[in-house]
Amino acid sequence: DEEVEHSLISSLEKLSNNNSPPDLTWGWNLTSDPCKDHWKGIICDKQNVTVKKIFLNGLSFSGSFDASALCNVKSLAVSLTAISLNDNNISGENLDQIGNCRQLTRLHISGNRSMSQFNNFSGPIPKEAYRFTVSSFIGSPELCGGPLPNGCPSLPSESLASAPQTEISETDKSKGISKEKIVMFSVYFLLALVLFFLVILRLCKKDKKKEEKIDADNKVAAVDDSVNRPSAPSNEYKIDVSKSENSVASAETESAMISSSSLVVLTSPVVNGLRFEALLKAPAELLGRGKHGTVYKVICEEGMTLAIKRIKDWAISSNDFRQRMQRLDQVKHPNVLPTIAFYCSMQEKLLVYEYQQNGSLRKLLLGTQIGEAFDWSSRLGIAATIIEALAFMHQELHDDGIAHGNLKSSNILLNNNMDPCISEYGLMAVDNLDQPSLVNVNSQKMTGQSENSFKSDIYGFGVILLELLTGKVVQNNTLDLARWVLSVVREEWTVEVFDKMLIREGASEERMVSLLQVAIKCVNHSPEARPSINQVALMINTVREEEERSIVSEA
Ligand SMILES: Nc1ncnc2c1ncn2[C@@H]1O[C@H](COP(=O)(O)OP(=O)(O)OP(=O)(O)O)[C@@H](O)[C@H]1O
């Protein structure tokens, strides 16, 4: 690919301050191929076709690293997984373009001149960045919280995304409010007042009509969740997907109005004033039916795309469900998909999520079976992110006894940055059908049950690790995969279990075996024998750190 060669050569020219490559033996010219002719510092895939890594450490370069030269070239942007330029004397250019290198999981640029023009981020530091020291945030004076001495004022969201909001309000404050703005706000206020009175007037009229109707019927047909009538009254919310899968629900106008009050919209920054009518009217597409319900993709008029899960057969009272949802809403982590809203009646439980167009980890793994790339460092990164998010949730919700309950690769969704997000946390009673040790869970004491549900998540995570390592996706029963892996390992054919794609890529056998050992501990048939979540997180991080060290030393 000539474009790739040009881009690499121009990047090197910039790095070396427009000097030609210091040594002719490096390759790096248009008459040769970066992969086949083994350009210095270039690491390609096993087939010697695509450039995967650039390692140019300690080469006394004194120019600049221009991220746009690499990451704005499509074929490089989709293949590069690591760039390491440690210990030169270079500065950075267009570093904001680094995000276009979508597969990049490692960027090593320490031991250089200033690599950024500073980020100027503002707002609260997200939790997963707390482990960095204060010096990592230099150049962003508006950041607050985390390791920084300045705490944050109370803000609705903990993400950097909330920064613009903060900035705007700060600027407004400093400028003061102009006369024009006062006039404009007064007009808005008057309009809002008129609207408010109109709505009140309408509601009063409606109430009057209703009273008259009730008098005439001489009976009250109240919507009562606790009564399951054979013939539903007209104002009861009905869902009937069996008739048509083009809408999540069918309901009459009046029923929708009554039901709208039952849709509880949580503290999500994604939707504003989501109404039940919008969900009812929107076209829906069936995404899949699982053991615990059905998921629909729904495109609302406002342009939002949502995923709605109808939960099947969960014997939980409406009150407990509501309380659980509200408690879960208080615990946020960037890698846990929040529930936007929920609907709850005796017959029906619906959960609303933001639709994740990149699909699930399960889908990604299935893709490898038809040759789609999914490299070792991305798999390791995904495992590390999931366990960190799960450990956070367990810690926060341990006292409430709320574990995930149904952790599996179809419940790990990939967000727009391809980062994994745990979905459906805490929405199910523990699924014990295909886990050997939980069969008698009902006979145990309450505390034991709750502990077991946390240990059941460790089992679920172990199965995800097995899927990542073997490239095989669990079909019906997680036990099948665990049993197969154990039988192969017992016969000392360990390498046979690994995904051939990982072997071809040259992933470290030693670290794959380390991860396999973690997985095997997690799927132990006895919950007590499984490691604690913190032990699992520590083991995964150790493997990851070893991987990082080896990448740097490879260079
Ligand atoms: N927010 C979402 N965005 C995109 N896809 C989603 C979303 N939520 C669920 N899905 C996908 O919809 C499909 C059906 O989900 P569902 O949760 O019903 O299946 P499951 O996880 O196999 O079963 P269950 O959770 O009931 O045991 C899955 O492929 C899942 O990855």
TrEMBL record:
<dbReference type="InterPro" id="IPR050994">
    <property type="entry name" value="At_inactive_RLKs"/>
</dbReference>
<dbReference type="Pfam" id="PF00069">
    <property type="entry name" value="Pkinase"/>
</dbReference>
<dbReference type="InterPro" id="IPR032675">
    <property type="entry name" value="LRR_dom_sf"/>
</dbReference>
<protein>
    <recommendedName>
        <fullName>Protein kinase domain-containing protein</fullName>
    </recommendedName>
</protein>
<keyword id="KW-0547">Nucleotide-binding</keyword>
<dbReference type="InterPro" id="IPR000719">
    <property type="entry name" value="Prot_kinase_dom"/>
</dbReference>
<dbReference type="InterPro" id="IPR017441">
    <property type="entry name" value="Protein_kinase_ATP_BS"/>
</dbReference>
<feature type="transmembrane region" description="Helical">
    <location>
        <begin position="182"/>
        <end position="204"/>
    </location>
</feature>
<keyword id="KW-0812">Transmembrane</keyword>
<feature type="binding site">
    <location>
        <position position="309"/>
    </location>
    <ligand>
        <name>ATP</name>
    </ligand>
</feature>
<dbReference type="GO" id="GO:0004672">
    <property type="term" value="F:protein kinase activity"/>
</dbReference>
<keyword id="KW-0472">Membrane</keyword>
<dbReference type="GO" id="GO:0005524">
    <property type="term" value="F:ATP binding"/>
</dbReference>
<keyword id="KW-1133">Transmembrane helix</keyword>
<dbReference type="InterPro" id="IPR011009">
    <property type="entry name" value="Kinase-like_dom_sf"/>
</dbReference>
<feature type="domain" description="Protein kinase">
    <location>
        <begin position="281"/>
        <end position="543"/>
    </location>
</feature>
<keyword id="KW-0732">Signal</keyword>
<keyword id="KW-0067">ATP-binding</keyword>
